From TrEMBL:
SUPFAM superfamilies to which the protein is assigned, alphabetical: PLP-dependent transferases
Keyword terms of this UniProt record: Aminotransferase, Pyridoxal phosphate, Transferase
Keyword Transferase: yes
Organism of provenance: Gemmobacter aquatilis
Entry GO MF terms: pyridoxal phosphate binding; transaminase activity
Gene3D superfamilies in UniProt: Aspartate Aminotransferase, domain 1, Type I PLP-dependent aspartate aminotransferase-like (Major domain)
Protein family according to the UniProt entry: Belongs to the class-III pyridoxal-phosphate-dependent aminotransferase family.
Annotated InterPro entries: Aminotrans_3 (IPR005814), Aminotrans_3_PPA_site (IPR049704), PyrdxlP-dep_Trfase (IPR015424), PyrdxlP-dep_Trfase_major (IPR015421), PyrdxlP-dep_Trfase_small (IPR015422)
Co-factor(s): pyridoxal 5'-phosphate
One Pfam family, short name: Aminotran_3
Full protein name: 4-aminobutyrate aminotransferase
PANTHER family listed in its UniProt record: ALANINE--GLYOXYLATE AMINOTRANSFERASE 2-LIKE, PTHR45688
Length: 422
C-alpha cells in the first residue's frame, strides 16, 4: 500500500525506534491524535466511529475520569506500602460487585500480570502445574502467560504443562455445549495426568473473545468448572474482556454462567485507559501463597490508579452503562441480522451485550480475506472494528459502552455501503 508521506515517515520511525515485533492495524495505518466519547480523530481531523476499543469503555477521555485522575495525581501518587484510603475504598467497592466468596482484591498494571499472579497463586494452592485453555485463547504477554496463549501462534510455543480444548462452539462440540465443553476439559485433565502433570487451573475468557465470541447458552461453563475442581484444580475467570458491564448482564461475564470462580482477573476497561488491572480471589486459595510469598507491585494499586478506577465505576453506575450495553447491544444484533438478509457473506452472529462476533463467509465457508477487506473498507469509511477467531474471519465489534442506537444506525449504514462496494 502506498502511504501518504507523513504516515510513511512515521512507519519508518516506528520500525527504527520500536523494532520488528510491533504490528499496526490496517493496510493503511491510522494516525490518531484525539478521542472523545465514541469518536477518534486522525491527524487530518477526520472522525472515526470507534466500534472496537473496549478499554475506553465509558468513552474516550471521559471528563469525570480524567478529572479524578488529575486531581489524585496532584495530591498523592504513591504505592501500596503506605496506608492510604484510596486502595481500600476501591478494593471494598470492587469486592461488593462480586459474589461474597470472593474476598480479596490485589492490584497489577496489566491483565497479563493479573493472570501471571493468578497462575503463581494457583500453583501454590494446588501443588499442580497443568493449565487448560481454549484453542485460540489469549491471556497475555509474560513468559508464563504466553505459554498458555495459543492465539499468539506457532512462533510462541505452548508450555509442556498446557492443554487446549475447543472453543465452546456447538459446531465443534454438538448441541449440548455445556456437556461437550466439560468432556473436552475432562479429556485434557486425563491427558495431563497421563503425562504425570497435576492439573492446576482451567482459565477462560468468559466470553471467549479471541476464539470468536462464544457466550451462549448462559450456564454452559458450570460442568467444566465442576470437572476442573473435581481434579483438584482451580477455575480462573479472565474478565479482562467481558468485565465491567460489557455483557449487559451485570458486571461480570462469569455470573451469566452461574459459577463463582476461584480467581477473577481484571484489566482493560478498569481504568478507561489508565493502566490498572487486578485479581479478585477466594481467601482460601491464597493462604499458601500468602504464607510464603510477599506481593508488591510498584504501580499496581497506586493512588492515581485507584482514583481513576473508582471514577470508572461511578460513571458505569451514573450513566446506566450496563443496561445500555444490554439494550443497544440487542439493537445492534438485530440490525446485523437484518443486514444479513441482503448480504450472504454475513454468516452466524454471536453477541452478548456490546460484544458482537460476526462470521464472514463465502459459500458458507470462513473467509478471512474478505473479513480483512471489510475491516479495511470500514476504516476508509470512518468506522473502526477488527477481526478475530482462529482464522481471522470473525468481525470483532466491541465499542465503548456509551454507544447509542444512533451510532448503531450509522455503523450499519456504513457497513452496508462497504459490503455493496466489495
Ligand atoms: N486476557 C485477555 C482475555 C485479554 O484480551 C488480554 C489483552 N488483550 C489480556 C488478558 C492481557 O491484558 P494486558 O494486555 O493488559 O496485559
Amino acid at each position: 500500500v502506498d502511504l501518504p508521506p507523513g504516515e510513511a515517515a512515521l512507519v519508518a520511525r516506528r520500525q527504527a525506534a520500536l523494532g520488528p515485533a510491533y504490528r499496526l492495524f490496517y493496510d493503511s495505518p491510522l494516525h490518531l491524535v484525539r478521542g472523545e466519547g465514541v469518536w477518534l480523530y486522525d491527524a487530518a481531523g477526520k472522525a472515526y466511529l470507534d466500534t472496537y476499543n473496549n478499554v475506553a469503555s465509558v468513552g474516550h477521555c471521559h471528563p469525570q475520569v480524567v478529572a479524578a485522575m488529575a486531581a489524585q495525581a496532584g495530591v498523592f501518587a504513591s504505592h501500596t506500602r503506605y496506608l492510604h484510603d484510596g486502595v481500600l475504598n476501591y478494593a471494598e467497592r470492587l469486592l461488593a460487585t462480586m459474589p461474597s466468596a470472593l474476598g480479596h482484591a490485589m492490584f497489577t498494571c496489566t491483565g497479563s500480570e493479573a493472570n501471571d499472579l493468578a497462575l503463581r497463586i494457583a500453583r501454590a494452592a494446588t501443588g499442580g502445574m497443568g493449565v487448560i485453555v481454549t484453542e485460540n485463547a489469549y491471556h497475555g504477554v509474560t513468559l508464563s502467560v504466553a505459554e498458555f496463549s495459543p492465539s499468539l501462534g506457532a512462533g510462541v510455543p505452548l508450555g509442556a504443562h498446557v492443554r487446549t480444548v475447543p472453543a465452546p462452539d456447538a459446531a465443534k462440540l454438538g448441541p449440548d455445549v455445556g456437556a461437550g465443553f466439560a468432556a473436552a476439559v475432562q479429556a485434557a485433565i486425563d491427558d495431563l495426568l497421563r503425562h504425570g502433570i497435576k492439573p492446576c487451573a482451567l482459565i477462560v475468557d468468559t466470553v471467549f473473545s479471541s476464539d470468536g465470541v462464544f457466550a451462549d447458552p448462559a450456564g454452559f461453563l458450570a460442568p467444566a468448572v465442576a470437572a476442573i475442581r473435581a481434579a483438584g484444580g482451580l477455575f480462573i475467570a479472565d474478565e479482562v474482556q467481558p468485565g465491567f458491564g460489557r455483557t449487559g448482564a451485570g458486571m461480570w461475564g462469569f455470573a451469566r454462567h452461574g459459577v463463582v470462580p476461584d480467581m477473577v482477573s481484571l484489566g482493560k476497561p478498569m481504568g478507561n485507559g489508565y493502566p490498572v488491572a487486578g485479581l479478585v480471589l477466594r481467601p482460601e486459595v491464597i493462604a499458601e501463597f500468602g504464607a510464603k510469598a510477599r506481593y508488591f507491585n510498584t504501580f499496581g494499586g497506586n493512588a492515581v490508579a485507584m482514583a481513576t478506577a473508582g471514577a470508572v465505576l461511578d460513571v458505569i453506575e451514573q450513566e446506566g452503562l450496563i443496561a445500555n450495553s444490554r439494550d443497544v447491544g440487542a439493537v445492534f444484533a438485530d440490525g446485523l441480522r437484518g443486514l444479513a438478509k441482503d448480504h450472504a457473506c454475513l454468516g452466524e452472529l454471536r453477541a452478548v451485550g456490546l460484544f458482537l462476533g460476526q462470521d464472514i463467509v463465502t459459500d458458507g465457508a470462513p473467509d478471512a480475506a474478505l473479513a480483512g477487506r471489510i475491516v479495511n473498507g470500514l476504516r476508509a469509511a470512518g468506522v473502526l472494528i477488527s477481526a478475530t477467531g482462529p482464522v481471522g474471519h470473525v468481525l470483532k465489534i466491541r465499542p465503548p459502552l456509551v454507544f447509542s442506537r444512533a451510532h448503531v444506525a450509522l455503523f450499519l449504514e456504513r457497513l452496508d455501503g462497504v459490503l455493496r462496494r466489495l
